[in-house]
Design goal:
Number of domains: 1
Number of strands: 7
Largest sheet: 5 strands, mixed
Distance between the termini: 38 Å
Helix content: 40-55%
Structural class: alpha/beta
Order of helices and strands: EHHEHHEEEEEHHHHHHHH
Number of helices: 12
Length: about 280
């Protein structure tokens, strides 16, 4: 995908964590550990903060989070992955800001912060680690990514294309959109009222975030290159609940949707109409 270079001042970005800048290995945590914790969250519905803490407790030489670096230029040029992420964030801000404006909700739009951390990070949702993979914290409206996850994603999806990585960031940005529109709060309320439906409701929210990721790409279709859509579909399928567990977990325990559902949601969004995604989370 041919994204324009980011402009400092258009994005809120920082880096936090232990050794090194984004793009390197994450402290003492390997890619296998990342997937272990990710499966705990994506499939079994475990709190990712607790899962990460459990994994970290058995690691040797894990590192504590350091002070955040808020120098946008330094953060965004620390690695190829960091530059890609900043380029995508700039595009996502522009696309969704314009969408809110077109629909008369200009005052409701706020840009999220992107934290490209390494090893560990303190968030308003608790302590995070590289073992968790990418996540969004609504309490501080920040997307957290240890970019070492992208190497594991490439292995899972069978490709190392940039669109697969953009899809991951755009999905987390989709959760930010849900926070701004109130959908996230509505789902959380419904989960509290009907705990037995908690996983099914979570699936709806994740599928809508997939759809929103597609909307961003669909609204920038002139920037899409041959093979991008296929990369996105492969990435969406690779992190479906059924694929991650090899069919060993029943569907009622899914929290993100099947490979087919995630691919379909992404494809729906690629039409470029965010209103088509609204029906996914309509719960009566």
């Amino acid at each position: 995908m041919r994204l324009n270079p980011f402009n400092t001042g258009n994005i809120n970005v920082r880096s936090s964590g232990g050794a090194g800048m984004p793009g390197g290995k994450a402290g003492g945590l390997g890619c296998g550990t990342i997937i272990l914790a990710a499966i705990g969250y994506f499939v079994f519905g475990l709190d990712p903060m607790q899962t990460a803490a459990t994994v970290e407790s058995v690691q040797q030489g894990s590192q504590q989070a350091g002070p955040a670096n808020t120098d946008e230029q330094a953060v965004c040029t620390a690695s190829e992955y960091a530059t890609e992420a900043c380029n995508a964030l700039d595009s996502l801000n522009s696309t969704w800001g314009r969408t809110f404006q077109e629909q008369g909700f200009t005052d409701s739009f706020r840009q999220p912060t992107l934290d490209l951390y390494s090893a560990g990070v303190s968030t308003a949702c608790g302590s995070g680690s590289a073992a968790m993979g990418p996540f969004y914290c609504p309490a501080d409206e920040t997307i957290y990514i240890d970019t070492s996850f992208y190497d594991e994603l490439a292995r899972m999806a069978g490709n190392s294309g940039d669109f697969a990585r953009y899809y991951v960031l755009a999905h987390e940005y989709g959760h930010h959109i849900q926070t701004l529109t109130g959908v996230s709060g509505q789902i959380r309320s419904a989960q509290q009222q009907s705990p037995g439906d908690s996983n099914a409701l979570q699936v709806l929210m994740e599928l809508q975030a997939d759809c929103y990721a597609g909307v961003w790409a669909g609204k920038n279709r002139n920037l899409i290159e041959p093979g991008d859509i296929e990369e996105g579909m492969e990435a969406a399928a690779a992190i479906g609940d059924d694929r991650l567990t090899g069919g060993r977990v029943s569907e009622e325990n899914f929290t993100h949707g099947t490979s087919q559902q995630r691919s379909q949601a992404l494809r729906l969004g690629l039409r470029g109409d965010d209103r088509a995604c609204d029906a996914i989370t309509q719960i009566g």
